[in-house]
Write a structure and sequence with these properties.
globular; 5-stranded parallel sheet; Rossmann fold; 8 helices; 49% helix
């Protein structure tokens, strides 16, 4: 077993995680944009891009984003890009949906895109597997946590703050690794 794998298992021993994690009240979660450190860069979950396109990103988040360096995680961009292939090209509504997504992807500076390392993939897979088991996710849906976990760990690795509307899943990840910077929001 490689030292990377052994180190990850030591940090996230699956045997330590045997109980279902309870979701915490909103008041205990990081929803305050004024708590984000002044020089922190930001990493978006796919929810941020979607809400921005719909004009539903809350004003405090828009203001924070305007003043910070933005990093783009490959897993979030892949979540957007899968829509390009998934929507039926014969459906007359498809082009109207795809045009803004394609424009967002085109405008992203490739120098700001971060890709998960092998170690982040391994750690994310172990953590996502633990959550799938402890939260009783049915086997066909067990990869549910993987993209969020990848982005969560990328934020930690880059010293960035992950922004997301997905408070339920991020609450669980923060219970496993509370030192990661996360900012949650509700739609504006």
């Amino acid at each position: 077993m490689s030292s990377d794998v052994q180190s990850i298992i030591s940090r996230h021993d699956p045997a330590r995680w045997s109980k279902t994690l309870a979701h915490r009240p909103k008041a205990e979660l990081p929803f305050d944009p004024f708590q984000v450190l002044a020089k922190s860069s930001l990493l978006f979950d796919a929810t941020v891009y979607i809400d921005q396109l719909k004009g539903e990103l809350p004003r405090p988040i828009v203001d924070l984003v305007a003043a910070r360096t933005i990093l783009h995680g490959a897993p979030a961009l892949a979540e957007l890009a899968v829509t390009i292939g998934a929507l039926d090209p014969a459906d007359r509504r498809t082009q109207a949906t795809l045009t803004p997504i394609i424009e967002v992807l085109r405008r992203i500076n490739p120098a700001r895109i971060i890709v998960p390392s092998y170690e982040i993939w391994l750690e994310a897979a172990v953590m996502a597997g633990i959550l799938a088991r402890t939260q009783a996710i049915p086997k066909p849906d067990r990869r549910k946590f993987l993209n969020d976990t990848l982005l969560f760990l990328q934020a930690a690795d880059a010293g960035a703050v992950m922004i997301s509307r997905n408070s339920r899943d991020l609450d669980l990840l923060l219970q496993m690794k509370p030192q990661v910077g996360v900012l949650l929001y509700d739609r504006g």
